[in-house]
Amino acid sequence: MADVMKGIDWKTFQQLRGSEKKEYFTRDGSIFHVIMSQQFDRQFLDEICELTTKIRGIAKGNKGVSFLQSLLQGKRAMLYFVQPSTRTFLSFMAACQILGIQCSEVRDAATSSEMKGESQEDTVRTFSSYVDLIVMRHPQSGFAERIAFLLNQIRRPVPVINAGSGKDQHPTQALLDIYTLHRSFDNYGGIDGKRIAFVGDLLRGRTVRSLAYLLRNYRGVKLYFVAPPELQMEEDLKSYLKEQKVAFEETNTLEEVIPSVDAVYMTRIQDEYDKAGESKRIDYSAYYFKKEYLKILPPNAIIMHPLPRRDEIPVEIDGDKRAIYWRQVRNGMWVRVTLIAAIFRKDKDIKEY
Predict the structure, then answer these.
(1) 183: Cα within 13 Å, side-chain hemisphere
(2) Least confident of 19-23, 39-43, 117-121
(3) Which residues are identified as catalytic?
(4) Residues 74, 185: one domain?
(5) Could you tell me if residue 4 is inside a domain?
(6) Selection from 252, 139, 260 nearest residue 200 by Cα
(7) Per-residue pLDDT for 111 more than 80?
């Protein structure tokens, strides 16, 4: 199938590196589809952080709330979430409401014509006839990318936002994580030069993959991959980091790295991807953030988690000022407001408000 806009077929497109796909996710030089972390550069990240903070300020007053709701009044969005989700789904719904967008939703493929044999591609193509934006979470890696490519072929292309794609990518989570890091270190030199530990199931954690891709945009960062050998980061990402000259270390001992990092990014075990209960054979308790670790964690460091959590962070840690995962949740809503506004080119109106 030929791409009428770019003159490239799907097979050729699949062979491109992530950074080479960036132009296919834009329109006239502006963001259009949000598919993978590799499509974003430092300038974009800085602008998103600045604009998100501006939007939060605008939303503090009734006049500002009315202004934001007027920006995309009359637009419609489809939230196509056929993989379980609570935070991301509600975050996007709230973001749409803040901008005046009306939402429809499909949260179970069993309620759609896929049960009659319709292909997933045809299902989403149908949605594109009714709405101005498609936000999707899907268990299949690369599915959002496939849909973005497909919709580029039609006369009325609709932007696609990847809200989680298999074990591969979760770009909007990575963007809200960058914003959280940006806000947390605003008075400590920013993200440049920071040391960040990723802890837990790194093999199947799409949030850590997406954030690691984004961190290559910052100078002098160092990453620590703390995981059991069976769940260490995949070779493709490590090769990418080496190519981008991003320093990283691998270890299976959490306690050793805590005193030397600026951020600890905790994750749960991703056993929904198990085929035969293999996760039960791994002692994951060694990758829990114990309460006593607070004594050796630097005073200006932060503890992050994409949620949901299980036992890897005990509830009693929530009261520590360095535990900012609930702040991450709220940041996510505002970053998604910013992204949607930018897709529809309302960023200029916001800057001038």
Answers:
(1) 25
(2) 117-121
(3) 87-88, 116, 137, 170
(4) no
(5) no
(6) 252
(7) no
Task: Provide the domain limits for residue 146.
Answer: 10-170+331-352
Same domain, 34 and 164: yes
Count of domains forming the chain:
2
Share above pLDDT 70 across residues of the chain, in percent, rounded to a whole number: 95
Q: What does each C-alpha distance from 53 to 47, 48, 57, 232 come to in angstroms?
A: 10, 9, 6, 35
**Cα–Cα distance, 25 to 32 (Å, whole number):** 6
Q: What is the pLDDT of residue 2?
A: 37
Q: Which amino acid is at 112?
A: S
CA distance 291 to 269: 19
Please name the residue that has the structure tokens 């309620």.
111
Place of tokens 């599915």: 143
The structure's pTM equals: 0.93
Give a yes or no: residue 2 inside a domain.
no
Which CATH number fits the domain that encloses residue 14? 3.40.50.1370
Please indicate, yes or no, if residue 5 is contained in any of the structural domains.
no
pLDDT, tens digit, for every residue of 190-248?
999 999 999 999 998 899 999 999 999 999 999 999 999 999 999 999 999 999 999 99
* pLDDT(188) > 90: yes
In the predicted structure, residue 123 carries a pLDDT above the cut 90: no
